[in-house]
Design goal:
Layout: H1 3-24, E1 28-32, E2 36-38, H2 48-67, E3 71-73, H3 79-87, H4 96-105, E4 110-118, E5 123-132, E6 138-147, H5 151-164
Parallel strand pairs: 1-3, 1-4, 2-4
Antiparallel strand pairs: 4-5, 5-6
Amino acid sequence: MTVHFRHLLLVAVLLGFAGLLHAAEEVKRVAVLDAVIIHGSERMPISPEEQQRLNDYTSALRAALDASDRYVLVDHGELDALIEQHVAGQRLENCRRCQARIGRELGADQVFMPRVFKVSELILSMELEIMDTESGEGLARDTVRIAGNTDESWRRGALSLSRSRGLVE
């Protein structure tokens, strides 16, 4: 091989790697649906404290994504209207097609669905599922178990999920 050809080959390889790195670092537009709590297979009443914790979980997740350099949070102003339009009496947390469509209509590449599964006052788990809005395909799912239905246990659980997604240190 001539020196000139080796240089051209090296440049081509480096440009190829640069393209791969750019694609890997592409900023994703994301929508975060409102967190829901699931009490087994039944719909149980949600206490005012739990509703506030769900709101805080959603807000913390949106803030972490908004502060990230890997994601751009889309405007959620039309979220309630889109849920009303597309869910039609179903449970949003069980309708992946609905979640993907809502995310897509909000202008997102990915949609985040945060859930809390409550077995009892002492046994809960927090889950974060990420889906592609075009295909509806699941991209990731993280779960953390928390002990106790308290503000502090929910805060620690949300922080753990944010860390597992690389959103906070």
